[in-house]
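Hey,
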Amino acid sequence: MKLKSILTLVRRRARVTLLPAALVLLLGPCADRAEGAAPDSETLPQITVEHGRFEPSELLVPANTAFKLRVTNKDSATIEFESFELHRERAVEPGETITVFMPSLSPGSYKFVDDFHSDTPEGVIVAR
C-alpha cells in the first residue's frame, strides 16, 4: 500500500471515530433542554402569586444589569403582572409561568401590581 493511501485511510477512520465524540461534546448541553429542563430556571429571579399575594413581595436584583424575571400564577384566576415604572404588563393564566424581560435598572425601588385584582398587595423590585 502506498503511504498516501495509508494516510487517507487513517484520516477517514479518525473522522468516523472522532465525529460521534465531537457530537456528544457539542450537543451534550442541549440534552437537558430536549428532556424538558428549563435552562437557568433555578437562577432566574422568581415571583409567585398565590392566595392573592406576591411571594416574595420584595425582590432584590443586581442594579445596572438586564435580567429575566419568571412570574408564576398559582391562583385560580388570571392575573396581570404590571409595573408602570418599568413599562411592563403581562397577563398570566392560572397555573402558567411566564418570563418577563427586564431592562437594566438603576439602583432604586420599582413597584409592581396585579392590575386585575386591586386587593392584591403590591410588590417591589429593589435594584442594588
